[in-house]
Amino acid sequence: MIKGIGSLKVLIGVLILVVAGGAGLYFHNHPKKTAPKPEYPEYLSFAGNYIFSVPKTYDIDEQSVPGSQLVFSGQLSAKTLEDVYNQNGISVAGISDLTDHSDKAFKDYVKNNFLPNLKKDAPTSNAQLKFGKTNGWDVARITVAKEGQQFRFIYLKGGQHAVAVVAKQETEPLKKIEQTLVDAEIGDLKNDSDSLKQSIKDYVQLAKAQKPQDLYNAATAELRAKSSQADLAAALSGAATYLNENITISGGSYNPSVFSAALRFTSLNKDNQQPTFGAIVLKKVDGQWKLEALSLPKP
User: How many distinct structural domains can be found in the chain?
Assistant: First the structure.
């Protein structure tokens, strides 16, 4: 997690994901939506149902701003999104309010909702909007200037799962995200995203229920060679307090046949308590997602 960003309070800046315009459903001919050849690692958002390739030398923080991914390189010390952008970081988040997936509704949303709220949030700024196509999707590129200097670059993708990508400038790493950002339904994980979600849910439930034997039986041969069932039982017992908390999985990183995700543990009774984190790794073996590694917090 980015140092200091747990205290993030200025969450949105100009990343405003507000109520979408009420445009009616509209159909017309448009280029077929395609998925480029993936470059690994990829990130799969469970909530947003989108995938993008992670730029080289970049890492992802999916915990500091729930529902968003912060993409950054090197050491980053930030308390606000403005700090992230000033250090060449990028944020990616789904636009959940845009429920009409037509091209017309997307353009109406950008012009009639997103831009007015952008101006409201940064009244002294000046925004330039350009519509275009990327891999068959309608997209919008917004360049925001403030006091004569570039303040923000925003890339919006339409489609079934609309997404906002925000940075200070349109850098090469951001262009990599633009070119590889696709709806999960047509990405290379289209046949695996649902089974991944279900497999992780099942393994987490076994951990919460303190079922080491079932977890051990579902593990890969590599995990069983490294750890015994007794080791797994001890780890579950030691993390029992955390396993009784609320556990959130936002998404995860995918390399061919291997998927890793962070586990976020939050107290059910203490609202101000800082979350605790663990991790789970699955490996696809003979068509099934088996448990490859499980890291749990200790008291």
Answer: 2
Distance CA(153)–CA(170), nearest Å, equals: 6
Question: Is 73 in contact with 59 (CB distance < 8 Å)?
Answer: yes
One DSSP character per residue, 30-74 reads -PPP--PPP-SSEEEETTT-EEEEPPTTEEEE-SSSTTEEEEEES
- 140-198 pLDDT tens trace: 999 999 888 899 999 999 999 999 999 999 999 999 999 999 999 999 988 899 999 99
**Shared domain check, 290 and 146:** no
User: Considering just the CA atoms, what is the radius of gyration of the chain in Å?
Assistant: 21
Indicate which CATH number applies to the domain containing 244: 3.10.450.100
Cβ within 8 Å of residue 205, ≥6 positions away: none
What's the whole-model pTM score? 0.85
> 286: number of CA atoms within 13 Å, CB side?
4
Answer with the one of 151, 183, 215 that is the final residue of a domain.
Answer: 183
Is 173 among the domain residues?
yes
